[in-house]
Amino acid sequence: MTVKEIFEEIEKRLAANPAKIQGLNAVFQFTLSGAEAGTWQVKTEGGKAEFSEGTPHTPGVTIVMSSEDFKEMVGGKLNPTQAFMTGRLKLQGDMGLAMKLQNVLM
Question: Looking at 46-101, which runs of residues are DSSP E strands?
Answer without folding.
Answer: 48-53, 61-66, 89-93
